[in-house]
Amino acid sequence: MRLVSRVLLRSALSSYQESREPEEEDLPQYMYSCDKSRLAPELSRCFVELGPDDEETQAFLASCRRHSSNLCLHLLYNCLRMVLCLFLSQTSINGLLETGKMFLFSRQQLCKLLPVHQPWPLNSVMEIGAGDGNISEKYRSLGAASVCATEASGVMRRVLRKKGFKVLDVETWDRGPHKYDVVSCLNVLDRCSRPLSLLRQMADKLDSGGLLVLALVFPFEPFVENGVYMRACITHSIIHSETFPTLQCC
C-alpha cells in the first residue's frame, strides 16, 4: 500500500510539473501567426489568422493556468485515472471526470471561419467525434437549427444527449438523403481507422455550398482507441508532413 501511494504521488507530481504554466511574467507570447510564404498557394489564400485576444479565449487560458497550479486536483485525477484506465478509454475517462475539454476556437473565432455575416443558411450541422459537445454548443449558438453529432465513447454520448444534441451512430450516420450546411471534424482524422473513407463520407454529406471544417494535430501520429487498448489505423497515413507549412495530403 505504501508503494502504491508513493507511485501515485510521484505520478501526480510529474503531471503537475509538466502541465503547470510558468509565472505570468515568464509566459511566452502565444503564437497564432503563420509564415504564409511557406504555404502552398491554395492554402495561403484560405488562411485565416485567429488571435488569442477575445474574451472567451483569454478566459480559457486563465482557467488552464488555475488548474495547472492545483496540486491536490492533479493528485485526485491521477488516482482516479489509474483505476478507471483498467475499464475505460481515455476519452471516456475525460467525459466522466469532465477533463480534457477541447477548445479549438472561441465563438468569435468561429465566426471568422464561417460566413455567418453573409446571407448564408446555417440550418444543419454535423459534428464528427463531438466529444462533450463544447464545440457543438458554439455551432448552436450561431443559430444552427439542427446540430447532430457522432461519438465513439459511450460516456461522451450520454453527455451529448444531456445537452440536447441528436447523436447518430458512428457507422451509419452518413446513410440516408439528409445533407448538412456544415460538417465539422476536429482532431478526429488521426483517431479513426479509415480516415480517407471518412473524408469521402463527409464530402458526400455536404449540401450545395456547404463547408467542411477540419482540424488536425501535428505531428500527425494516428492511432485508434479500442476500449482500453490502442491500435494502428487500417488506412495508410493521409499526411506526409510533421509541420503545417509543409503540409502534403494524399
Keywords:
single chain; 250 residues; alpha/beta; five-stranded parallel β-sheet; two-stranded antiparallel ribbon; globular; disordered C terminus
Can you lay out the helices and strands and say which pair or pack?
Layout: H1 2-19, H2 41-44, H3 55-68, H4 71-84, H5 90-97, H6 107-113, E1 124-128, H7 134-141, E2 146-150, H8 154-162, E3 166-168, E4 180-186, H9 195-204, E5 206-215, E6 224-226, E7 229-231
Parallel strand pairs: 1-2, 1-4, 2-3, 4-5
Antiparallel strand pairs: 6-7
Helix pairs in contact: 1-4, 5-8
Mean pLDDT value: 77
Which sequence of strands runs across the widest sheet? 3-2-1-4-5
Which regions contain 5 or more consecutive residues with pLDDT less than 50?
1-5, 21-29, 246-250
Q: Helical content, roughly?
A: 25-40%
Large-scale geometry: globular
The span between the termini is 52 Å
Roughly how many Å is the radius of gyration?
20 Å
Order of helices and strands: HHHHHHEHEHEEHEEE
Characterize the biggest β-sheet. 5 strands, parallel
- Could you say which structural class the secondary elements and strand pairing correspond to? alpha/beta
Query: In total, how many beta strands?
Result: 7
Q: What is the count of helical runs?
A: 9
Q: How much strand content do the residues show? A: 5-15%
What does this structure look like?
The protein is of the alpha/beta class and 250 residues long. Helices cover 37% and strands 14% of the residues. The chain has a 5-stranded parallel beta sheet with strand order 3-2-1-4-5. The chain has a two-stranded antiparallel ribbon with strand order 6-7. Strand 6 (224-226) and strand 7 form a beta hairpin. Helix 5 (90-97) packs parallel to helix 8 (154-162). The relative contact order is 0.10. The model is unreliable at 1-5, 21-29 and 246-250 (pLDDT under 50).
